Amino acid sequence: MQQNPVGCLVPRTMEWRRRCLRPRVLGIALLSVGIILSLLAFHKTEVTYVKKVQPPLRELLYRPLNFDDVTAARHQTDNVSQHLGCVDAEGVEKVQDILCMKRPDYLTRYKNPCWVDWTVDLQMLRCLPYFHILGVDKCGTTDLHSRIAQHPHVLLNSGGLGKETYYWCWLKYGQWMKKTVTPKPFSYYLKLFQKPAATIAENPDPQGFHPLITGDGTPMDFWDFRAWPLIPQNRGLKEPVVLTPHLMKHMYRDPKFIVILRNPVDRLYSDYIFLGYGFTPEKFRTDVPKAVDMMEKCLEVNTTRQCVFSNDTYVNLPMRIHLGMYSVFMKEWLAVFPRSSFYILRTEDYHDNMTYHLNNIYTFLELDPLPEETLQDILEADRKHETKMKKKVHDMFPDTRELLQSFYSRYNQELAVMLDDAGFLWPEQDAPS
């Protein structure tokens, strides 16, 4: 046959195989190699990309704070109990494994998270708090709680001041400040809400709905994670993967958190006097550089979480300087619960406009508005639990304040970015003289 001008559209003779088939096979082979190499390159890029935007939880939480990281961390911790699961179902450990417990079947006609306990001889209504005032110490939590609790639909618990249970931060782990006590089970915590549970059950509205609520106002819950090595899921780790927020999320229905934060410099001075570390600005001036130096030396060789969540830090510091590193703790809570679960305010703003914030908190808790006269009585009540000794002590020295402002500045900046509120920078003019 006559050869086609293209040269290869001819019958498959030996000459055709030599001139056309071999080059085609070679071309196809080269093309296949190219495709495979491209796919490998794409796969490598894809893996690198995934690692970059979705780091492991522990790696994510160890890095310097970034608001995007907080959001990503929350998505990764949504099912932390599913990933880590129950570790100590037999109860071998001294500290009860909360992740081995089943979340209660909450009653839909109760505003407060309550359920019927069928494990006792008599059916008993159990309740957890509807809200927590998380902290922080010496920021006005007791005064704020006392005014919230004067709403007719809010009930006190059976803890200290009708407010503080000390369970999630201390008693669950067998600690009491710097002392050791017998660890308390979850059933102990429930007993602190037995009285309000009975009142809630006895007071339905005409439609059969139970609108009363109770709360927990333990300010140490926000920051005291020292016992994290005792949580079974953290066994053998250098840093925790499970903390109080994870345990609460496992058990609670839809908790609401109130966080009141004071200028960390002023909070520290009040705390220093209240706990008896010292009673003069001279001693405070001596101890502050020691505390700053201890923290900075720790941070040089450890992560922030290792330093701030350490029992050694708590015991050895000459003051509780680490409590004012608010962003470190806030990050842990926002990694587990959405921002909408929190009402966060400054102590200074609360004092300046109590009416505004109290009304906002009632709304946040979905409580009915109060008559103007009732609200006015609540506003005019005396302040609760002030540090009276501080009124007898002179102000801290300016150089002490300046050193503390410098120490806290990074954490204030992180907090302001995290909450999108420049007020948490606590500009110098906001500090009292």
Automatic annotation (TrEMBL):
TM annotation in the entry: 21-42
Biological process according to GO: hexose biosynthetic process
SUPFAM superfamilies hit by this protein: P-loop containing nucleoside triphosphate hydrolases
One Pfam match: Sulfotransfer_1
Residues annotated as domain Sulfotransferase: 133-391
GO molecular function: N-acetylgalactosamine 4-sulfate 6-O-sulfotransferase activity
Keyword annotations of the record: Membrane, Transmembrane, Transmembrane helix
Name listed for the protein in its UniProt record: Sulfotransferase domain-containing protein
